[in-house]
Design brief:
CATH topology of the largest domain: Rossmann fold
Bound molecules: nicotinamide-adenine-dinucleotide
CATH superfamily of the largest domain: NAD(P)-binding Rossmann-like Domain
Shape: globular
Oligomer: single chain
Helix content: 40-55%
Radius of gyration: 24 Å
Largest sheet: 8 strands, mixed
CATH architecture of the largest domain: 3-Layer(aba) Sandwich
Strand order of the largest sheet: 3-2-1-4-5-6-7-8
Number of domains: 2
Strand content: 5-15%
Length: 442
């Protein structure tokens, strides 16, 4: 089958690579000319395990094409995926300009029947807007060409995106008529037993409900961790205690220094805005966001308290910049809140991340108070303390003697609860984690 994907970011590129790998011919369209040129040269713009060889082999086999030419893209595929960004607008609601622009582009160039599948995360009702936009352009062109609009929200996780796309838990398909159903089964035929059909509005809401549920679990656990800390309890014990209940489960109940990434923060905000637009006060989701914003300040609060409000001129080692392991994505990362707070307080950051250093440089440029180093050990040299923001595997079993001898003050602030407090006490390192009984009252 010939398929076109608009928007070659985390979602679009992974989707295109997986579709081409199972034998479909895929045309990838993006407005970012540098990105497209790089992709043609084999330079993959994001770090995602397994993605580079998948893209490369299918590009070499001629099953995946890259272009900035939207007209060619529209002509190419019977199915047109929309996978562009839906960033937060100024008020937090989802900005649909990119999605609607692609709808307009498809309508401008289409000369035959198309199935338009929206993979971007969009508020309930967007399917209707996409339909209306296409119909309007076709009518202005005086063309009576049939088209179908389908919602197919994406549930991949960055860091495991290829695997999630190859072996999804479920494929949600929202459609308001069953006419396109047989054509739709084809791009997904390898996983037809995982397909869940529903109406478009329910599919759109399913995506937000999933992300908001996961964000709620995290914020709930962070709330518990803050209480555990003040009550002298260990949240890691509590986590094990509650996770063993199969109604609760172990997933997404890890306490930490807040969730980030391109999805949870914006999707929680967007659903709050959707609720407002229908006159509903989403008290729970607002709290999820408030708890998360507070949690992202947690490590800075610890540092400030420990160093008695005197951070100016100090240097802090940071391990981990990406919002989670196995990605270079720093969108809404907790590390950014920490670094920006440290800079405002006059401190210097000496940081290491296995994959996100380039991204950090791209975001913050060159500045005297940001030193990016090539190893986790180098980040410690003459630093006043170590702060851990991301739970990369490589940080789980460090040489604690080396940490102790490299730091000016033997203290670790662990935003991801990687170490045992007992082990830290034995090694003579002052250790502050999240909700583990030892509290600096902030
Ligand atoms: P991204 O920012 O990585 O990529 C979006 C791409 O769209 C960019 O390359 C941009 O240049 C391109 N683009 C913008 N306008 C275009 C146009 N008119 N024509 C062609 N290309 C255009 O975004 P992403 O992280 O892949 O997210 C895309 C959507 O999927 C969002 O709605 C997001 O919420 C959702 N989503 C993301 C993830 C994730 O983990 N990143 C997971 C599930 C769902």
């Amino acid at each position: 089958m010939k398929v076109t994907v608009f928007g070659i970011g985390y979602v679009g590129l992974v989707q295109a690579a997986v579709l081409s790998d199972v034998g479909h011919e895929v045309c990838c369209v993006d407005i970012d000319a540098d990105k497209i040129e790089n992709l043609k040269k084999g330079i993959i713009p994001i770090y995602e395990p397994g993605l580079t060889p998948l893209v490369q082999s299918n590009y070499d086999a001629g099953r995946i094409h890259f272009t900035t030419n939207a007209e060619q893209g529209v002509a190419f595929g019977e199915v047109q995926f929309i996978a562009v960004g839906t960033p937060p607008d100024e008020d937090g609601s989802a900005d649909l300009q990119y999605v609607l622009k692609v709808a307009e582009t498809i309508a401008t160039y289409m000369t035959s029947e198309k199935i338009v599948i929206d993979k971007s995360t969009v508020p309930v009702g967007t399917g209707d807007k996409v339909k209306a936009r296409i119909a309007k352009v076709l009518s202005a062109r005086k063309q009576d060409i049939s088209f179908h609009v389908v919602s197919n929200p994406e549930f991949l996780k960055e860091g495991a995106a290829v695997n999630d796309c190859l072996r999804p838990d479920r494929i949600v398909i929202g459609m308001d008529s069953s006419e396109a159903e047989s054509s739709l089964r084809e791009p997904f035929n390898r996983n037809h037993d995982r397909m869940i059909f529903m109406d478009i509005r329910s599919a759109e809401l399913t995506k937000y409900a999933a992300n908001c549920m996961l964000a709620t679990k995290i914020s709930f656990m962070n709330e518990m961790s803050n209480m555990a800390e003040k009550l002298g309890a260990d949240i890691e014990m509590v986590r094990k205690g509650i996770g063993s209940d199969e109604r609760i489960g172990y997933h997404f109940i890890y306490p930490g220094c807040g969730y980030g990434g391109s999805c949870f923060p914006k999707d929680v905000q967007a659903l709050v805005k959707t609720a407002e637009s229908i006159g509903y006060d989403s008290a729970l989701l607002k709290s999820v966001e408030t708890v998360n914003a507070r949690q992202k300040q947690k490590l800075f609060g610890y540092l400030n308290e420990y160093f008695a409000d005197d951070l100016a001129g100090k240097t802090f080692a940071i391990w981990g910049l990406s919002f989670k392991p196995k990605t270079d994505d720093m969108r809404e990362a907790s590390s950014r809140v920490l670094m920006e707070s440290l800079w405002a307080a006059g401190a210097t950051v000496q940081a290491y991340d296995p994959e996100a250093m380039e991204e950090c440089q791209r975001i913050y440029g060159t500045r005297d108070d940001l030193v990016l180093v090539g190893t986790k050990e180098a980040a410690l040299k003459k630093a006043d303390a170590l702060v851990i923001c991301t739970e990369w595997q490589n940080f789980r079993a460090p040489d604690f003697e080396m940490i102790k001898s490299s730091l000016r003050h033997p203290v670790i602030f662990d935003g991801r609860n990687l170490y045992s407090p007992q082990r830290m006490a034995d090694s003579g390192i002052d250790y502050y984690a999240i909700g583990r009984g030892k509290s600096i009252h902030i």
